[in-house]
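Many introductory courses stop at the sequence. We go one step further.
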Amino acid sequence: MAGDGQVTFAKAGGFHGLGQQVLAGEKVRTPTTTKDGYAFLGWYLDADYQEVFDFNTLVSTNLTLYAKWTEVVYTITFETCGGDELPAVSAPYTATISAPTPTRAGYIFFGWYQDENYQQEFDSTQPITSNLTLYAKWMKDVSALCGYELAEDEQSYIIVG
């Protein structure tokens, strides 16, 4: 039938179904599309993303639709639990971060944890895949009292002198 259209989807790295054959006077079915580390912003009639495609439009010619994406950036916040305040940092999908070391008078910093109960230690070699809040774990520094110092395991104290 004259006026039928072939719709091609320029996915720009996303995944979705193949193109569609659309009969004259029918609408394009909205495809599903995903791209790791990116948020989908819509389908456009032009590669410069100036004209959004309206899926209520009746098709009568061949079309190429362009997927627009924006990179996902996650926020990592630091709950220092009494230590000095630290600014949040941003990280793109699957990046890794080196968490800063906070200070707190009279305490020794024992690391960052992903939960308030200090059960899941933060691993800076693992990729970031969501927003995170990291919690600082502290131990009272008693090294100046009665000849104590931090043991090599950095988990306990030993008596000196």
